[in-house]
């Protein structure tokens, strides 16, 4: 389900640092995180999302999440923006 959301999103932000920055600026409506990601990369994103009341959903694979964004490498986090 979340892979499809990412594919259909008009605007996304890819990556941990960029996602945290976007959450702080108030433009994120949902965050999608790969379950196979290292905890140290996703914890700051989860914390910031929870603090700002942004829903977080999970997918199984970094590689498939990256492909859903149209990139050739895996990604840990994708933010869907407004």
From TrEMBL:
InterPro entries given in the database record: Ribosomal_eL30-like_sf, Ribosomal_eL8/eL30/eS12/Gad45
One Pfam family hit: Ribosomal_L7Ae
Recorded superkingdom: Bacteria
Domain Ribosomal protein eL8/eL30/eS12/Gadd45: 5-81
Protein name: 50S ribosomal protein L7ae-like protein
Source species of the chain: Sporosarcina quadrami
Lineage: Bacteria, Bacillati, Bacillota, Bacilli, Bacillales
